[in-house]
Amino acid sequence: MMNNPLNHFNYFAYGSNMLTARLAARCPSARALGPAIARGFTFAFAKTGADGSGKATLVAARNAALHGVIFRIDRSDLPALDRAEGGYRRIDDFPIEADGGARSAVTYIAEAPTDGLLPFDWYHALVVAGAREHELPKAYVDWLATQDNTADQRKVCEARARAFAALKSAGYETVNSALYG
Q1: pTM (2 decimals)?
Q2: Which fold has domain 5-180?
Q3: Residue range 31-82, pLDDT digits in tens
Q4: Which site among 15, 24, 106, 123 is 20 to 30 Å from 166 CA-CA?
Q5: Distance (Å, whole) CA 67 – CA 36
């Protein structure tokens, strides 16, 4: 059977979904294709999560370049990705650079970015672990790791449990081991 390009799409991940284990739990068909760059954007924990913490988003910034990862995903997984990315606006035709050329990908940007948010430590660890996994530039990974975060004080949290499972499957035993190598 021929591989029909209409059956899949390219997805540009720049936050917690850069960690393959995290994205594959949401979209089992996800396959990493490699690093990518979004020109004219920077990274911020400026999307308010349902838990009140900061989540990753792209922020327009002249002369900036944001590193991320391009994945190939079966179109049948798009509804699951949309559900996971609630509170973001999906862009189906987002320009990126990968493999030395221009490409188009699906990505998500916060509807209403908010300054001053902090991510929970476990979410921050997912972002850094994904950047490390795909060998994004060391200076960028180091910069991501230095961003402020806050400890999640909730005794029971399903999202945190899923995050720890993804981190563990990627070889990290603790949040600190993901953040600081």
Answers
A1: 0.94
A2: Hypothetical upf0131 protein ytfp (3.10.490)
A3: 999 999 999 999 999 999 999 999 999 999 999 999 999 999 999 999 999 9
A4: 106
A5: 6
